[in-house]
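In response to reviewer comment 3 from the previous cycle, which asked for concrete evidence that the modeling workflow produces usable outputs, we include below a single protein chain processed end to end. The sequence was submitted unchanged, and the resulting structure tokens are shown without manual editing.
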Amino acid sequence: MKSVIIASLLASAAAFAPAKSASKTTSLAAFENELGAQAPLGCWDPAGMLNDADQERFDRLRYVEIKHGRICQLAFLGQITTRNGVHLPGDIDMSGHSFESYPNGIAALIGPDAIPAAGFAQMFLFIGFLELAFMKDIEGTGNEFVGDFRNGFIDFGWDSLDAEAQLSKRAIELNNGRAAQMGILGLMVHEKLGEIGMGVDLPIIGQLS
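The workflow returned the following structure tokens.
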């Protein structure tokens, strides 16, 4: 669990570091007008991941950042929803075990009370199916920017928005994703603190354990 927390810190660091001066590198200056380089923070790169980077490198990092942000938004929402007592109705298996009978957080996946291995395998395969079939940028389908997974199929009114509104929506998603990465990391830390008797009561979800 400690390694997961450390890895999450390193993965999200690039979005939260002070901008380096143009005298040290010219790469950051090239990306000052990119989406996400917003006042008052500007273009932040603590780990130097954009040093001598080209547009292809930047687009790859942005793709990863957006995907991590989307995953973390779902993870954070899942945490506060289930810990607030809201679970799917019915049973999770044919043996009659209800969804609410399993613990919240990482304990639902790892530990003596975790869901059965077959259940974990089903989730793993389903997520893999989504990754391979839908959650990717398919060339030639009219996608307009990095992270656009519409693939000529899903729209939800996106094309009805003007260019300014579209840019605003993308910026909101990016910022919410960054916040969610820090949020889920914070919940993971609090969960570990609860295990060693140092937990605190948090709004909505109480004390994590």
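The chain is about 45% helix and 0% strand. We consider this sufficient to address the reviewer's concern, and the full set will be provided in the supplementary archive.
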